[in-house]
Specification:
Blueprint (H helix, E strand, L loop, with lengths): L6 H7 L29 H13 L4 H16 L7 H15 L3 H14 L4 H14 L4 H10 L9 H11 L6 H7 L1 H6 L1 H13 L3 H29 L3 H13 L9 H11 L3 H14 L4 H13 L3 H14 L8
Length: 327
């Protein structure tokens, strides 16, 4: 027996008909997530790094570098940075800004000794060493250590890839690209930069394979957007066809926010079974987002799977006991 979604459930869901506001795609805020929660912990670090921003003011590129460093420091717990290490770091940046790369590297080495294991110092020591010599083996080691700590860094993965290609470590390229897969799927500009690097270093087969993947993803996203437009316009058959084609072309990626947008659109179209599948995919990546667990429960109720609906509602009550609709 099919369950029927009551008006109360629809109000809890937040829509009664296709709504353009549901089509908003929230931008990734990985670098600044938790900034406010760690502001107090990072206050002393902000003071220590204030001179870094001041010294880099005349150079826009270094100002951005300092800003990214400060944001990263405040967004996650780090080992203690001693005043001596902070002073050496600031002095290294001053030297780099003045064009004295050797002095900058020397001072960063001293800072590394003063604060061993501090990831930010290791990262920028690697960047400075790479600036001096792109195939520097020490820079490569620093990059390898820093990549898990700074997965969203704009330049680090590309420099590490280029370093592998320059030093003939082709056996490490496939594993690096596999590590970068989530970012390649969600950032076309970054993916094209990877492809450019591969082409420049003569890795044509790998470049061709990644280009094919990227072309497929872009086609999938175009189809996905077409499906959203059709769904909003109430053109159900066309929307479902475009969504199906997009999924076949690998879009949306399973860990992306667009998966929730797909689920919302399918819900609005009355495709509760498919919507439930999409919600489950999204919740697997964002298990604390209880509102989508609740929407999955509504979908299960809509297709008459009351046991799964109950399980999801119980999970919502554990995560967010203040949600009245779940009672």
């Amino acid at each position: 027996m099919m369950g029927r979604l009551c008006e109360r459930c629809l109000r809890a869901f937040g829509v009664r008909k296709p709504c353009l506001r549901l089509l908003c795609i929230r931008r990734d805020r990985a670098l600044t997530a938790g900034f406010s929660e760690t502001r107090e912990k990072g206050a002393s670090m902000a003071c220590a790094l204030r001179r870094l921003a001041d010294s880099a003011r005349k150079s826009f590129g270094l100002f951005v570098l300092a800003f990214l460093l400060l944001t990263a420091l405040l967004s996650q717990p780090r080992p203690a940075l001693t005043p001596q290490a902070a002073q050496l770091f600031n002095s290294a940046v001053d030297a780099f800004n003045a064009g004295n790369l050797d002095a900058a590297i020397q001072r960063l080495r001293q800072a590394e000794k003063a604060a061993p294991g501090y990831p930010d110092i290791g990262l920028y020591l690697g960047l400075f060493l790479y600036e001096k010599d792109n195939d520097n083996a020490e820079a490569q080691k620093h990059f390898e250590a820093a990549l898990p700590q700074f997965p969203g860094h704009p330049d680090l993965p590309l420099k590490l890839l280029n370093s592998y290609l320059l030093t003939g470590k082709l056996d490490k390229v496939p594993s690096l690209i596999a590590t970068l897969k989530p970012r390649l799927e969600q950032d076309p500009r970054f993916a094209f930069n990877v492809i450019y690097t591969l082409v420049q270093r003569g890795q044509l087969a790998t470049a061709q394979a990644e280009l094919g993947e990227q072309s497929r993803r872009l086609q999938g996203e175009v189809q996905f957007l077409g499906g959203l437009i059709a769904a909003t316009a109430g053109q159900k058959a066309q929307a479902l066809e475009l969504f199906q084609n997009a999924v076949q072309n690998g879009f949306p990626p399973s860990g992306s926010r667009q998966t929730a947008i797909l689920a919302d659109s399918l819900f609005q179209l009355g495709e509760f079974r498919r919507a439930a599948e999409a919600y489950e995919t999204y919740v697997n990546s964002y298990p604390r987002d209880s509102k989508y667990s609740f929407r999955a429960a509504l979908c299960y109720y809509g297709i008459g799977d009351f046991q799964k609906a109950k399980e999801r509602l119980e999970q919502v009550l554990k995560q967010a006991p203040g949600v009245p609709e779940a009672n």
